[in-house]
Amino acid sequence: MLLERIYDEDLSQTSYLIACQESGEALVVDPRRDIQVYLDLAAQHGLTITAVTETHLHADFLSGVREIAAVTGATPYVPGTGGEDWQYGFEAERLMDHDTIQLGRITVTARHTPGHTPEHLSYLLADGAFADEPGYLLSGDFVFSGDLGRPDLLDEAVGLQDTRFTGAKQLFASLKSVFLALPDHVQVFPGHGSGSACGKAIGSLPSTSVGYERHFAWWGPFLQNDDEQGFIDELLNGQPDAHAYFARMKRQNQEGPALLGERTAPREVSAEELARGLEGRTLALVDTRPAAEVHAGTVPGALNIPMLSKAAGHIAWAFDPDTDDAQLVVLAPDAARAAEYADHFVRVGIDALVGFVPSLEGLPTTVPSVITAAELDDLGEAVTLLDVRTRTEHAAGTIPGARQLSAGKVLFHQDQLPSQEAGPLVAFCQSGLRNTVAASALRRAGHDVIELEGSYAAWARWKAEQAESPAVVTAS
């Protein structure tokens, strides 16, 4: 058996290619939408992708199941579990509890493990060349290294009411009836790593085991003592903010993501064409430079996405394709680098990147407003302080008077902000990275935003320095 782990640092998301090397058949599980990596892996190992599936309706990225099936002719499989409200809206084979997919001598068995979502499946793998019993579990967003999939996303992201409690009860039951019924030696390969918003304390290890989680995971004692209520209370406490774009991902994944087909390389756009497009709001620039360079001057209304490695998550915070029909032009040295941004963007359903500019030469520029902590102290109540960190970070300490709305929500919940006529916003995160993304999105939406230089960390240092410096008294 061949098991290849494909990890996306951008979204902390994992997909897998499973294959029987004897028969040459391969299955892809939880693929992202830019599928070339799976085609390349199959070609490298001389395999044919004959099947593709996923563990559940994802909230943080768009699935590549339809894309792989269309390109390779593989049979698409999706969960058929969870009830009527959680059925997929496109043609695919439905998998129920205990259904199997056969890859030569490898048997893949679907197990219904609801909790994170009602339809969630995990996949047990039995390598018939060595054993008749399963030795591996692809756990999706059910069990992570050191954590569990959060059961509150349907409330947080989709707008349902109190489904978190039902989901938490389902997780408890899934752990008892499925996970802990497995032998300790079964290796567990989860769908996310550290940094994902699909759990609150996901470990960085790429895999774990049933025995390790049974004995050392935070939830182990609750299961051992059959303490369902204690488990629910601990599970739901302190879950991170869910990004607003998750609702769109859920909807599009259930309907079936649009097929990309053969993709065109981004073209170089002239400064004149971009300037016209910016004026008519038919084009928008994605400025990929670090915040310090952007603060020295950028194009009015540009979206600041300063890290290619986090471009998918950040563009999904800053651009809503449901309400904004502008096409995107990225600041990039060449078409190849622009295509890398396009790959990241399509993972979150933003297919609008059409071109690139190698520089800002010939374009109108503006200097974004930035202030220091000392300057902020002088402004008093003339501004509204906006903390774009998570609820947990905000609760642990913030600038007095600041209201909280996380960076992944600000564009989508502008109704929670003061009117644009109420004066400027002073926005901050922890160190400045999330803030520059959120501030650029709000500026494009028409808000007057001032960025706090160095964000909360710089403000906290400044306050500490002020406390340590005794007042200077001069004699008259």
TrEMBL record:
- Residues covered by the Rhodanese domain: 279-307, 379-465
Task: Give the matching Gene3D superfamilies.
Answer: Rhodanese-like domain, Ribonuclease Z/Hydroxyacylglutathione hydrolase-like
Q: Which GO terms describe its biological process?
A: glutathione metabolic process; hydrogen sulfide metabolic process
**Which molecular-function annotations from GO does this UniProt entry contain?**
hydrolase activity; metal ion binding; sulfur dioxygenase activity
Q: Which UniProt keywords apply?
A: Hydrolase, Metal-binding
Q: What is this protein called?
A: MBL fold metallo-hydrolase
